[in-house]
Specification:
Elements (H helix, E strand, L loop, with lengths): L7 E2 L5 E3 L14 H13 L3 H12 L6 E4 L2 E7 L5 E8 L4 H13 L1 H8 L5 H9 L11 E5 L8 H16 L2 H6 L4 H17 L27 H8 L33 H22 L6 H4 L11 H9 L5 H11 L3 H23 L6 H14 L8 E3 L4 E4 L4 E5 L5 E7 L2 E4 L7 H13 L25
Antiparallel strand pairs: 1-2, 2-3, 3-4, 4-5, 5-6, 7-8, 8-9, 9-10, 10-11
Helix pairs in contact: 1-6, 2-6, 3-4, 3-8, 4-9, 8-9, 12-13, 12-14
Length: 473
Amino acid sequence: MSEYGRGRGHGDDERTFEALPPARGGGFTRTWWGRAWLKALEDTALDGQQLKAGRRHARAGAVGAVSVRPGRITAVVKDRDGTAYRGDVLVREFSEEQWERLLDLAVDSAGHIAALLDREMPPHLVEDAAAAGLDLLPGIGDLDAECGCEAWDHCPHTAALCYQVARLLDEDPFVLLLMRGRGERTLLEQLQARSAARASAPSARGGAGTGGAPGGLGETGGMPGVSAEEVFAAGFLVPPLPAPPIAQDVPGRPPSLDTDTPPEPGVDPAALEFLAADAAARAHRLLGESTGGGNTAAAGGAGLPRPPRLTVAQDAVRLAAGAPTPSIAARLAGGTGRSRAELEQATRAWRFGGAAALAVLDEEWTPDAEALERAALRLAEAWAEDDRPALRRAGGARWTAVGADAQLRLGEDGRWWPYLKAGARWSPAGPPDRDPAAALATALAAGAGEAGAPGPGAGGGVLLIRPDRHDTP
């Protein structure tokens, strides 16, 4: 419930609701079932003046806490002079046989259960129950009054109680079902059990061994079929999901494993703390993504979607990119078969583009002639003829700038990667680009920053990026 709460429980057969605030203007109820409740009161009471006095009491907030039990609602109501009276309103309970019929009706329609869980009284359930001889909502003469003021009919106190209960019914129709004899928890458990029993029983239409077509509503591989309606109804018996959690600005800090108790042999507390912190960061990112505030690029590089699954070697590089301590970095390098220098080179690639950047660093492939022709044309357009850098093929999809420590690599996704020679190794010099000229300019600019590195034009104006050339560096 929203404004008035769910009520304190006394087991499943009684609920107590705190006194409601005064009703300021408007009617006492906004739902059709709340109006049906008040109509039953107004049709039952013989004295209209007593009802008006009861409305005034209820509107003024003179009704205390309301207790709801099978067959009875109770509250203490105060007159204007402060005199308090206990008022009770009696409602007829359903018999066991009537409850069996009502449960069958509810399970027959997934919409009935869904509406109840959404705190609504489905009109079709009321209509179906009436057709089966069950008056779910009270009618004329169904609300009997008992009050400490010794009135023989509805008095201002019991009338005020009924008006307040209409406000409770607006928020939760299970209040009415409790009056009829079943609490919410018991009722939902019985609905769930009944729905599950139906789902596990042979289909009423085909039955076991009736030869239903495979994949249809009869037998499927020797198993009895279940109607979609029954499965759908059973699903609504699961309690509603809680509201999504609010993501914090930063991930939580894992507990410290630095204790007085020595670790078991082979267990590295520092490594476990590092992995726990990484798991917390990934969980924080996933939570942000699920609530619309995530950054998928953080997982796979600049603008790339997070890869669905990483290999062990790729995940080790991802972990190494998280700046672990030297001892953990050494363990990661050993686990991937890389040296420390090679791992540093791989983490640099990871930071530029995740798993796709690692593939460009480690693997070679042969692009098709059409892709190379397009790249050659774009490179030719980007520089004047006398200032155009020369490239020679270094195998696969790699081209080295002649006279410069710059290289251009093509990934299988069609993006071009700038590379720079550092010592004896080639390392990524920046993020990828769809334009080979832009990527080459990044590589040349990075190379020009190194001592003695030539800039564009050092290649004598010859452009060699054709599929028929296989020059070596």
